[in-house]
Design goal:
The complex is a heterodimer of chains A (209) and B (101). With 209 residues, chain A is mainly α. In chain A, 80% of the residues lie in helices and 0% in strands. Chain A has a single domain (18-208), classed as Cytochrome c oxidase, subunit III, four-helix bundle (Four Helix Bundle (Hemerythrin (Met), subunit A)), CATH 1.20.120. The radius of gyration of chain A is 19 Å and the shape is elongated. Chain A starts with 17 loop residues before the first helix and ends with a helix. Chain B has three helices and no strands. Chain B is flat and about 65 Å long. Chain B starts with a helix and ends with a helix. Classes of the chains: A mainly alpha (209), B mainly alpha (101). Chains A and B meet through helix 1, helix 3 and helix 6 of A and helix 1, helix 2 and helix 3 of B.
């Protein structure tokens, strides 16, 4: 069987909800443009970090002194798993008539995301306890700026998810709510991509050098 | 028909998730066990990261050559912009650093 053409990024609702699928294209394309602009923001923070991390240490701690690689690895796994569970939530949104599966996967995604934020805050706290505060050096300023900007994005995603839980409860699975969930899915997967870059170019590079 | 598309979609997320977990574990392993010489190791983990980004776009965001609108072109154009900004910044600032030493 030939696959239906994809109208927009993310899971398309084509085969189960024709109406939502038909109205989704411009709405999701607009959000896609926002996500690309958001990537540009992160790129600038990465560029700042790249130039600061080696040359901006100001005699202070180096990446290998302050990074907790196993902790960053666990955070990566949490976020990756949350991306997979959000994918399963998208599948439940598309194929399951009841909301039970959908809510189950979303709650799991929420817990994994909250766990990620919790571990990240703990890492920040440990670094600050060691005296590796943002104002110590250019390396640390740009590190906290980059990683915390990502963390704030994830936190915003968690709040967004809470709002959608309420909307699912109040409005049910209307087209609007479905499209909002699909945009949150894109946001969530995109943040995962940004985290892959942070894990590789900040944590792994910092420790490997 | 719905069953068939369900299997396809489900498989997409499974393959993507599995590949992403493997690629992350590989990159982590390379660094923790110090497998390759320094420079080669950095190249290897960069390649793994790019591979993982492509996996995410393909299997989670469902961007492909069959994408309808300009989704793919937009990603490629953004990548070009990112490459120019990040590459240019690193080039200029590292060059400046060398000149100042």
């Amino acid at each position: 069987m030939k696959r239906q053409p994809l109208l927009h990024p993310g899971l398309n609702l084509g085969s189960t909800d024709e109406y939502s699928h038909d109205v989704s294209e411009p709405i999701i394309f607009g959000f896609w443009v926002f996500l690309m602009a958001d990537l540009v923001l992160f790129a600038i923070l990465f560029a700042t970090y790249a130039s600061m991390s080696v040359q901006g240490q100001a005699g202070g701690p180096t990446p290998i002194d302050v990074f907790d690689l196993p902790s960053a690895f666990i955070e990566t796994m949490l976020l990756l798993t949350s991306s997979i569970t959000f994918g399963l939530a998208s599948l439940a949104l598309k194929y399951k008539a009841d909301s039970l599966h959908l809510v189950f996967w979303l709650v799991l995604t929420f817990c994994l995301g909250a766990g990620f934020i919790g571990m990240e805050l703990r890492d920040f706290w440990v670094m600050i306890e060691q005296g590796a505060v943002p104002q110590r050096s250019g390396f640390l300023s740009s590190f906290f700026l980059l990683v915390a900007t990502h963390g704030i994005h994830v936190t915003a995603g968690l709040f967004w998810m809470l709002v959608l839980f309420l909307q699912l409860r109040v409005f049910g699975r209307t087209t609007e709510v479905k499209l909002r969930l699909m945009r949150l899915a894109l946001f969530w997967h995109m943040l995962d991509i940004v985290w892959v870059c942070i894990f590789t170019f900040v944590y792994l590079f910092g420790v490997a050098q | 028909m719905t069953d068939e598309t369900y299997t396809q979609d489900f498989r997409s997320y499974c393959i993507g998730g599995l590949l992403a977990l493997i690629l992350t574990a590989l990159a982590f392993g390379l660094v923790v066990f110090e497998v390759l010489p320094n420079f080669e190791r950095l190249i290897a983990i960069s390649v793994l990261a790019v591979a993982q980004i492509i996996v995410h776009f393909r299997y989670f965001l469902h961007i492909s050559w069959h994408s309808h609108r300009d989704d793919l072109q937009l990603v490629l154009f953004t990548s070009l912009i990112l490459f120019l900004m990040v590459g240019g910044t690193i080039w200029i600032l590292f060059n400046l650093h060398e000149q100042m030493m």
